[in-house]
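Side project, low priority. Logging it here so it doesn't get lost.
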Amino acid sequence: MSKLAAYRRSPIALIVLLFLGLTFTGSAYAALQPVAPADSYSAAAAVDDVEQGEKLFLANCATCHGKNGGGNGTAGPSLAGVGKAATDFQVSTGRMPLATPGVQAPANPNQVNFSEKEIDQLGDFVASLGPGPDIPDAEYTDLANADIANGGKIFRTNCAMCHNSAAQGGALTRGKYAPTLMGVEPVHMYEAMLTGPQSMPVFNDATITPQEKEDVIAFIKNIEEGGNAFGGHDLGSMGPAGDAVFIWTIGIGMLIAAAVWLGRKAA
């Protein structure tokens, strides 16, 4: 005992104690950690979906995005990190595969040549290239708990400058445009906010929370159902732009007519 007491103050004793403490803590954590039940079928199915998605990718997307999804110069960007949400948005709306080269990929529902299962498999393959946003949970796209008023406030602050105050779309620079949001599926609007397609900025969950995204979608759907018609003619629901065109066309026409009438009366 006296010999052990002599080594008690040695620096080596401190290192040994730290090593033993870490070893004991790690062993206890590994022994007490709950183990999730193995689901070999799900794992095998996921691997199979990725493999099928890769086949679809090579046949339909690799020409522009490269065989490994790393991009192909100016033809197509890298897909590493865009996530399953971006794939679902682009393919489900008919934007991809791109029908013709242009400054922007337009939505074309008639161009969707894949089944839902195939789109899901494509998304699984793209998601395997790097971590990215996933398809949103149904609880944020069913609009059951949405606050339309709050959605309108968020939309006017973040979206109206491009998509128009009535969500009808608008022109951007260099031939690009913000598309109309009428008739767009809630899940696709959520995915667009999450991934930022085309010239749209990314509104991640730190910028606009999932609940706020649901509120925005509910506000847009309320407009689609006529919720912004408060009486009189809606002038195409184009917002201030429609009012300005009406005032300019009718108002200036009336002023010209009045000027001509007054001129003839004076003569």
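Brief comment: The two ends are 129 Å apart (CA to CA).
Revisit when time allows.
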